[in-house]
Amino acid sequence: MRLIFQACSMIFTLGNLLASQSQSPGWKNAISTTIINFNNEKMQITWAARELFPGKNVSFTYTFDEGKPKVWKPCPTYLLDQGYNSGCLFKTEGPTLAISIRNSNGREEFFSKRLKSDFYIKPNRPENVTFFWKEDTVTVSCNKPERAVKCLILELQYKSKFDKDWQSRTCKCCSVGEQGFDPRKCYSFRVRLKRRVPYCNIVNYNSDWEAETFWMNGTLVDSCDDDIKSQSNTVIVLSCLLAALLMIPTLLILLCKWQRLQKSVMPAIPDPKYIFAELFNDHNGNFQEWIDKTDHAMVQTKLEYEEPECIIEAESQREDEKNSDKQGSQEKIYSFSRAAENNDPKAAQIACLMPTSNTVASFAGFQILMNDDMYVML
Prior knowledge:
Blueprint: H1 2-20, E1 33-38, E2 42-47, H2 49-52, E3 58-63, E4 73-74, E5 77-81, E6 84-91, E7 96-103, E8 109-116, E9 121-122, E10 130-134, E11 137-141, E12 152-160, E13 167-172, E14 175-179, E15 186-195, E16 213-216, E17 219-221, H3 225-265, H4 272-275, H5 277-281, H6 287-305, H7 326-341, H8 345-353, E18 359-363, E19 366-370
Parallel strand pairs: 1-9
Antiparallel strand pairs: 1-2, 2-6, 3-4, 3-7, 5-6, 7-8, 10-11, 11-14, 12-13, 12-15, 15-16, 16-17, 18-19
Helix pairs in contact: 7-8
């Protein structure tokens, strides 16, 4: 049954095609014309005026009457090309149209033609387009046109910002669905109506695209540029973090090598502020004041902790005189011991360095005879 219907449609189409291309008796030359029937409301017929009629102006008449006699109407609105008539725009009044192109005064006919206006329909763009989302599936629908719904196809095209080409989906008017959308991506959608060829049209005329809309995860958004920008920002941030992580160990290695090089080439100079703390803290850097005080302190320390010295020079030749001077030597020894007991280093030193002549010094059970040329070291 379907094959029979298709065969009948083809025969009907060929018949209309032959009828639309039939010639009138007054046809002089073949003229190429472009015919558009805007949603079966307005007709537009154009021709190449400069190539076909150089330097001449022509007139255009038409009629939708199928019987005889025909009433020819002049073109209400001419389309101009550099001041010459190149087309006509008029209202669609029926399915059968006859046109005639003549010279400016209408006496000489250059071209005539009969055609089916229904075979040149260009549909209007879809109205009241709605999107219905269910998980990853979207269904797009629009209002049904008033006439010839069976001749119309609803086409849906979509793509994400990462797709180069549009993906297309078609279905009979006036609903189409598609599934498999990624909720993390932003998609652009556009829809239009198409006429079936060759069953309804002999020329493939489609409607203009409805305004493009942007959807992400079932939500209408203003644009998909923000989606690209956010993903680009994420890539930039991740790249910067990775670069920073790679730079940190590199900088640490370079820092260690620089410290080693600096120590080998330029050894560190100690700060005298910490070595000579007394010079800077107590004397504010006055070196002369600090050195004077330091020398004085060193002398005092030497005198306090220096053990008394006695210079002794023993001469065995004078042992025979020890008895005669014994009494005097005991008094000297006594005075030296008393000075040592009183912790008077200067007195003890004087007592040791200035022995009296023929003095006897007694140490640990030994007696030493001393004169002016002898000294004893303790």
